[in-house]
Amino acid sequence: MKNNVNYAYLKKELPHLEHQINRFEYMNQRKQEFNVVVYGKYNHGKSSLLNALLCKEDHFKAEDKRTTTENATYVDSTTGITWIDTPGLAADVAGKDDGHANSAVTKEADLILFVHNVKVGELDREEIEYLTRLLQFKKSSQIILVLTQQDQLKSDQFEQVFNNISQQVESLNLIKICVSQTRYFKGIKNDSSNMLQRSNIDELKKLINQKLTDFNQVRSEEYKDLQTTISTSLEAKGMEISTMKLHKLEELKNIHLNLQIDVQKLIQKIQQQF
């Protein structure tokens, strides 16, 4: 199924699997790169998180106003990781920004960092829906819920928010980690190992590096799952078409039989009259 695949035909015949087919096509056509996509609502700290992970404070624009309107990519040749910063969700009324972000997570992502700013409280309804939809295309092990700005809350406030969020996503079985980009860069500036440790950025890097280590196996499993899903759906579609064909043939047969009966009745009636 890997070679000479007509993806346009697949998407036409299996529209409910459009995202999976796009991902399957991407995996067949692109090199073995490990893509980490940062995803979440507007102004929750996605770009500043990426800057911390890259240790480049100003690489990705991180401002209060909406600046990221298309996917931005950084290829780290040292680690082999391709970092993708996506526009904030629900910020563009036209939905164009969301289209770019959703394309990145469904087609390109090997690992998704779903970012939520704990300063605003627990996850809102839209964020829960985003996470639920992601799990239709990705395994929970391919998503890390990153809670940012933990330094902006008092310890008791943060504990309450964290507990609420934990209850919200309990059934989703996601990895969760709390970080502070502000503490991280202050730690670098002041050469403070304590502040660096409290930022939890290095812990997040360890999690990502572990995913990178498991990358080939996880991608192979994902590829096989996609192949099975598409093949099974095609077979089901073929059976559906065959069944419809049989029904149509049966209908035609009954029409032909009824027509013969009607013709015979008409002939008999004419013969009686003459």
Automatic annotation (TrEMBL):
Pfam families from the UniProt entry: MMR_HSR1
Biological process per Gene Ontology, one example term: tRNA wobble uridine modification
Cited Gene3D superfamilies: P-loop containing nucleotide triphosphate hydrolases
InterPro entries on file: GTP-bd, P-loop_NTPase, Small_GTP-bd
GO MF entries: GTP binding
GO CC entries: cytoplasm
G domain mapped to chain residues: 36-148
Top-rank lineage group of the source organism: Bacteria
Protein's recorded name: GTP-binding protein
Lineage: Bacteria, Pseudomonadati, Pseudomonadota, Gammaproteobacteria, Moraxellales
